[in-house]
Amino acid sequence: IRLLQGDAGAIEAAERVIVPRGTMPAAQFLAEASSFFDGRFQYRRAYDLASRAVEVDKECLAARRQLGFAAMRVGDEATARVHLEAVHAADPFDLFTYNQVKLLDYLGAEFTTDRSDRFVLRVHKSEAESMRPYVKELLDRTWDELAQRYGVSLDTPILVEVFPDLNDFSV
Questions:
Q1: Which of 21, 24, 50, 123 reaches 20 to 30 Å from 148, CA-CA?
Q2: Residue 38 in contact with residue 46, Cβ under 8 Å?
């Protein structure tokens, strides 16, 4: 309940109670806490907790897996690749991890990525040259209009991906 109410000290308080009892190792606990926030779309918080979990125990596959998934959600694909490949090497039957590694391979081979202060734009190589200028202009115009309309400014770039095939976006 304290977590849902936004109590910043709730994780540390629970960690002080659960870990010493031997109910679960610290890295596993932090990975579970990370997953809790991931499921509530609080990706930065999930990433930070998963990072702590790996710092506590670099060999904990659950922590490394969670950090890989959390890193994907915040756009840190280099960190995601390191941890997801390590988990896949240790457990080649984990299909979720396998699929994420394959996704990273596909994106790296088939898409170009451009970065600005506002956006990370990923477009398929076959369409990048023709689409990139139009998409960038549309994104910048939309950013300016929405920031002015709602009085907000974001501190992180937004990832925008343009897929050439509808099946690339399907579940």
A1: 123
A2: yes
